[in-house]
Design a protein that fits this description.
CATH topology: Four Helix Bundle (Hemerythrin (Met), subunit A)
Number of domains: 1
Number of helices: 8
CATH architecture: Up-down Bundle
Strand content: under 5%
Number of strands: 0
Radius of gyration: 19 Å
Structural class: mainly alpha
Shape: flat
CATH class: Mainly Alpha
Length: 209
């Protein structure tokens, strides 16, 4: 969702990006602080059962994912390391969110079922990103699937927050079921797409005629 409305959010957050540049804060610093904030919100508040506090804390830092890139473009200091750092730390932040939920269900949430689902979302979310990165590193395309990173992130945060506000934990629980299934399907889709490309490459022009 952040990706779909990137232009809107970038315009809205532009004054913050301009301020950071003015005071000498680098884009890489924003990326790092944003990840630390997300991890803190997820791993400190979620395990204590403070779900709404955790969601609000995480949300305050999630937008760093848009600010850092915008800062790089404004300063003309875009580089491959920045993109690498951003992508790597995104995986850490995403993993922390589902790890925090797993710790919640291992503690005050007291549910082995949803503990397992949180771990499935954590693992499959990481494999989804890895499958695409590995495929592109081998020269294939694997940008397919029904569970893109931004969709997973927004849906779990929104539903966890709403569930905490209205006392409806079922909102978070249903979302975990949906994300576990969608992430698994996405991994299968990406494996299948790369398989087709790999076998077509082996077959060569004659095999495709």
């Amino acid at each position: 969702m952040l990706e779909r409305f990137r232009a809107f959010w970038t315009k809205l957050l532009n004054p913050i990006a301009q301020l950071f540049i003015k005071v000498g804060i680098s884009a890489d610093t924003v990326t790092l602080v944003g990840t630390l904030g997300v991890c803190t919100g997820a791993l400190v508040f979620f395990p204590q059962g403070k779900l709404l506090t955790g969601v609000l804390f995480i949300t305050a830092f999630v937008f760093s994912d848009l600010i850092d890139g915008h800062m790089s473009r404004l300063t003309g200091k875009t580089n491959r390391f920045g993109a690498f750092l951003d992508s790597t730390l995104d995986r850490i932040g995403d993993g922390a969110i589902f790890a925090g939920l797993a710790l919640y269900f291992a503690g005050p949430g007291d549910s082995k079922l949803y503990l397992a689902l949180s771990l499935i979302c954590l693992v499959m979310g990481s494999v989804t990103s890895y499958a695409r990165a590995k495929a592109e590193g081998m020269g294939f395309q694997a940008k397919v699937g029904i569970a893109e990173r931004s969709d997973r992130l927004v849906s779990i945060l929104v539903m966890t927050g709403l569930g905490a506000i209205f006392g409806l934990p079922i909102l978070m629980e249903v979302t975990l079921w949906a994300l576990a299934a969608a992430s698994t399907v996405t991994v299968v889709q990406r494996v299948w797409v790369v398989r087709r490309q790999a076998y077509a490459e082996v077959a060569g022009p004659e095999g495709r005629n």
